[in-house]
Amino acid sequence: CKRLISLNFCSSCRYRLMAIHIFKPSTTNCISSTLTTLNINVDNFADCLYLLDGRLNCLSTLIIRVLKISPVISNIKNTKKLSELKSFSLTSSDLTMAYDNLIIPLLHRMINLEELKLLLSVIRFDSTYIDGIQLQDEVLIYIPRLNKLTFSIVTLLFNNNIKIDLRSNEEIQRSFIGRVYGQIGSDVQTLIMKNEVMAHMDYVEEFLFDKNIHLPRLLNLSIKYESLAIVTNNFTNDAARITCSKLKCLDISEPFVRPENFHQYFPLL
Predict the structure, then answer these.
(1) CA 199 to centroid of chain Cα atoms
(2) Which of 123, 80, 75 is nearest to 101 (CA)?
(3) Strand, helix or coil at 203?
(4) In sequence order, what E strands does 103-143 have?
(5) Is 70 exceeded by the pLDDT of residue 145?
(6) DSSP 79
């Protein structure tokens, strides 16, 4: 197919069932000087790096769904700038610990990228959650021509030594100075404990009122009593009752006297 310019491979299939393994050092030899658009499901991140090692030198759009993003041990050339690539979409539903070591360096190579889409679930051990400031400092400043960014990055943290200070909505918006982005929401489906002691009041409201941040499996909550009382209007605001009624543990460090309707808000405590 010497004149092939666009290839859609398995994109209509569930990529867990139809992901292909491209990179096989002893047998793989795929080269095209005409292909500009590729939509594909692959088995691992080595396949993604293989497609971007220069063998598809006219590729301008890559939409790729990766089954596993894990450390790569190979001789794939993965340092060359991808000056032709204008649109890149990376999706993986599996948890990955390789965001900082693999995904960030790959994005740094896309110097002329205009559209970027990231749908990822990331595990971190010695860092904090991925927010607008980190996206700006670690990704966006390296892609000066980017004009469209779509992202959903779930961060699962394992670090008891870091106190996470959630920024206010205004602070997050200010982190994108000079750029225009739409509203950012968060949907967390597997969170077990959320520490709100250090959080801004607007985050407390969004967590408890089920607004932009959706926490259907929140079971344990650590929060200041003053914040809890203010947001719930002394436990009279019904909007927060759904979330509060599911809690099995409420950690409030300072002493307080339970009001009369406290148990109606927290029937499982």
Answers:
(1) 20
(2) 123
(3) helix
(4) 115-124
(5) yes
(6) -
Distant-in-sequence, close-in-space partners of 209: CB < 8 Å, separation ≥ 6? 231, 239, 240, 243
Q: What pLDDT, on the 0 to 100 scale, is given for residue 212? A: 55
Residues contacting 177, CB < 8 A, separation 6+: none
Q: Burial code of 55-68, b = ≥16 C-beta within 10 A, e = fewer? A: bbeebbbbbbbbbb
Outline where DSSP puts E strands in the chain. 6-9, 37-44, 61-68, 87-96, 115-124, 148-157, 186-187, 193-195, 213-214, 220-222, 249-251
Flag whether pLDDT at 114 surpasses 70: yes
Place 232 in a pLDDT band, splitting at 50, 70 and 90: confident
The per-residue pLDDT for 243 is: 81
Pairing of strands 6-9, 37-44: parallel
Question: Where exactly are the structural domains of the chain?
Answer: 1-182, 185-269
Residue 20 has what pLDDT? 56
Dihedral of CA 169/175/180/181: which sign? negative
Residue 238 makes CB contacts below 8 A (sequence gap 6+) with none
CB 259 within 8 A of CB 237: no
Mean pLDDT confidence for 242-269: 83
